[in-house]
Amino acid sequence: MRRTKALATALGGIVALLIVAALAASPLALAEEAKAKPGEADVIFDDTSHAEQGPVEFHHVAHREAFGEEKPCTRCHIKPKLFPMKRKPGEARLVITMKEMEQGKSCGACHDGKTTINGKTAFSVASEENCARCHKKK
Q1: CB 111 within 8 A of CB 122
Q2: What is the DSSP string of 41-68?
């Protein structure tokens, strides 16, 4: 009987760890947990309503390097809170529209063609010549 309880307790702990690991692996996991190497996307927004443009690839590593900080998470996830730090269980996927970005929301808060970070001006999402910088056709 004691062995059964001990085994059940151990298995419960393992299941809890697996659940935590699964949640941490959500598409919007913390930037420092991202396993992407430089040049690789670690978040892909595959909104089928704009399938002709292709999915958007987001690179935490490139943005971290642009900010010149080790953990610039607060720039986008805390103040201003442009994006959630992590998707909650059961929460709908984040949908970002070009219209919202052109109004200065989400990516458009910096990618307006005017915002300068460490001497470099972020490209504008409103300019059609920049579509391929984010949208990657399959």
Answers
A1: yes
A2: -SEEE--GGGTTT-PEEE-HHHHHHHHT
Nearest to 75 by CA among 104, 117, 16, 25: 117
Radius of gyration of the chain (CA): 19
pLDDT tens-digit series, residues 36-71: 565 566 788 877 666 678 888 888 888 888 888 767
Maximum mean pLDDT: which of 15-19, 27-31, 40-44, 45-49: 40-44
Instruction: Name the one residue in this structure whose structure tokens are 């972020």.
Output: 122
Determine the CATH number of domain 2-134. Answer: 3.90.10.10
Beta strand 120-121 with 116-117: parallel, antiparallel or unpaired? antiparallel
Report residue 108 CA to chain centroid gap.
15
Q: How far apart are CA 82 and CA 4, in angstroms?
A: 48
Spell out the domain ranges in the chain: 2-134
Q: Are 56 and 50 in contact (CB under 8 A)?
A: no
Helix or strand holding residue 120 (H, E): strand 120-121
Cis status of the peptide bond prior to 38, with omega within 30 of 0: no
